[in-house]
Design brief:
CATH architecture: Up-down Bundle
Strand content: under 5%
Helix content: over 70%
Number of strands: 0
Radius of gyration: 22 Å
Number of domains: 1
Largest sheet: none
CATH superfamily: Sodium/glucose cotransporter
Shape: globular
Length: 479
Amino acid sequence: MNWQALVPLIGVILIIFGAGVWAGKYIKSSNTFIQDYFLGGRSLGGFVLAMTMTATYGSASSFIGGPGTAYTEGLGWVLLAMTQVSTGYFVLMVLGKKFAIVTRKYKALTMVDFLKERYRSKWVVLFSAFSIIIFLFSAMAAQWIGGARLIESLVGIPYTTALFIFALLVLIYVVIGGFRAVALTDAIQGTIMFVGTLILLVATIIAGGGLSNIMSDLAAENPNLITPYGAEGTLTPAFVSSFWILVGVGVVALPQITVRAMSYKDSRSMHRAIIIGTVVVGVIMLNMHLIGVLARPILPGIEVGDRVMPLIALEVLPNWLAGFVLAAPMAAIMSTVDSLLLLVSSSIVKDVYLNYIEPKASQNRVKGLSIGVTAVLGVIVFLMALNPPDLIIWLNLFAFGGLEAAFIWPIVMGLYWKKGNKYGALASMLTGVGLYILSDTFFPQPFGLHSVVLPVVVSFFVYVFVSLGTQERVIEQET
């Protein structure tokens, strides 16, 4: 067991636990449990908002799966990954003030709350909750696997044991602290990610004998590794460009990101978060994916791509520093796990139970149910993660695509187009999700594009045409 690397990692985890316990004390004394547990009281400042968006979006896919795929594909994957720079900027500019104002007016605590009040449709709410639960289980499984892979590589214990340790750590502090714990720990984790990735990138370049030497080694092994087209030439311009929708523009529809756009306290906080978030995401994403490519000549022949990041850290850094740097991906994974757990929990408790099963449930009943559901969800995801794939990034990207196909137009058009109605929203969601699953299963790259593109385009026209075609029916119902 590598104690020198393990001690700094444990130190960071203890700090995170401390923040979670502190937030838990606040939750216990709160008179507005639902708002505080799921939204942090709408009180986030600019720095915390930027870091919580960064840490939530920068998940196991970015820090474990991303470098693993870059290790396999080369610099082409770095280019593709940089489409994520626009994420925070785009989300806060599109949703921004308007979304915050409208959700406060609706007293919405979740994205589904917004859809419920905007469209006044039980079926929109139920299908939304169903989509979140189904697709986020895939995303959560990816995070569980990433955390276990990291502990497995660092400590040298079996994967199943590492998975159990990771699940236990996350569940305890998420169940205790809720969203406030998530936001506070995200600020800590985002800072660690920023510093840790810089340290590891510099150390990797030095260990490889400089950039020019590493590039020569890559070119000698496979010239395609230093081109935009990937090791096998499969990263075509159409496919890479289509990732602007999947991990750039479409991120506006991810529930774990949209909830952040309703949690800040004022306009100044939002503007500050746009600047900080864009810079931090850009630096982190560039560093992590470059590390994956540059690690290939230093550690050739790694078979499980998800182990590249922890192995290169242990190779090029002193053990104690590797432990600190590896706290960055652990931080990213834990922050994403806690956010996803709370999202699925809120979909079940807030969007289904309180809306349609027991609207008059007491606060103690809601509190007990929220904590219980969160814990049960964690156990289910643990069982799903027992048999992991070699590269978790594909699990995460599948979840991204499904959520974007479902929600992008009901959210964006619902916010900016008054003629959009419940029929258009439901038809768009059904079309987007159905077409995405069919495309991903049978036609994974239609016209050379990622499988999310066609569902997003088609569901837009479905939203518009169905909404326009049902205007008279909506008017009749209102009168």
